Amino acid sequence: MNNLRQLDLNLLVTLDVLLAEHNVTRAAERLHFSQPAVSVHLAKLREIFDDPLLLPGPRGMRPTARAEALREPLREALAVLERAVAPASPFDPAEARQTWRIAATDYGETSILLPAMAGLRAQAPGTRLAVVEMVPARIARQAEQGEIDLAFHTVEGSPPNLRRRTLFAERYVLAGRVGHPALQRRPTLKRFCALEHVIVSPDGGGFHGITDEILGERGLERRVVLSVPHFLFLRSVLESSDLVAMLPERLVRGCAGLRVVESPVALPGYEMAMLWHERSHRDPAHQWLRERIVQAV
């Protein structure tokens, strides 16, 4: 047998049954084949292995030394193949030991993962969750290579070759500390521009965003005095100063230290999506994780 690719797997199944039954008729019954079909298989096996394999005896057929040597390795190999091609078993979160890796920004952590955490820990206590830095340019490659299971990103910026499910629509609000004198009500556009603003610049150091573009179309300009890379640091800044910021509403929802009002500048919102690769789309554990996140948000 010089090339495994030339061997019909059905022949090995027949040999396994013949080595168990030592009888062509009984083997044919177990395999639901005709007796001549099993005899043909045996003839082919003898040619492939260059050995008689089974010889006539007083009480059925007697395996040769070569056949005896094949018995256990063949049974083990077929058992492995049976498990490999068996239908996926239902996912049991209570017994699961998966480690999931999710790419998210601090916004995704707060607005998506945080609401899902309690349910994940309660229902799948044996699992682990690793949150890794979300770099948009790397998402597709990381998902394809199995480095991440999920990513959270805006629908508009999602790679086209990944599976996607929209989680929610987000909008912007104006936020500052509780008791901020300029946020007792919705400020006028003039007052808005006069306030000192903080901006989130994911790439670092930027002082210009969509708010400034819209203001610029009207010939207006606001005072951006601080640029930070993360939303969560921005929240701390707002709570401890008179700076204000345009923030996604879910990020400041329920923050006792912040006052939220409608902005005099209407910004376009966005949709947040959950992304994953086709390779894990039908995996029961992955499906369970995705559904838990959808339910949480």
UniProtKB/TrEMBL annotation:
Highest taxon, organism lineage: Bacteria
Q: Which Gene3D superfamilies match?
A: Periplasmic binding protein-like II (3.40.190.10), Winged helix-like DNA-binding domain superfamily/Winged helix DNA-binding domain (1.10.10.10)
PROSITE patterns the UniProt entry points to: HTH_LYSR
Which UniProt keywords are given for this protein, alphabetically ordered? DNA-binding, Transcription, Transcription regulation
Where do the HTH lysR-type domain residues begin and end? 7-64
InterPro entries with a match to the protein in the record: LysR-type_TF, LysR_HTH_N, LysR_subst-bd, WH-like_DNA-bd_sf, WH_DNA-bd_sf
Give one Pfam hit by family name.
LysR_substrate
Name the Gene Ontology molecular function terms of this record: DNA binding; DNA-binding transcription factor activity
**CDD domains reported for this sequence:** PBP2_DntR_like_3
The UniProt similarity line reads: Belongs to the LysR transcriptional regulatory family.
Descriptive protein name: Putative LysR family transcriptional regulator
Q: State the organism named in the record.
A: Metapseudomonas resinovorans NBRC 106553
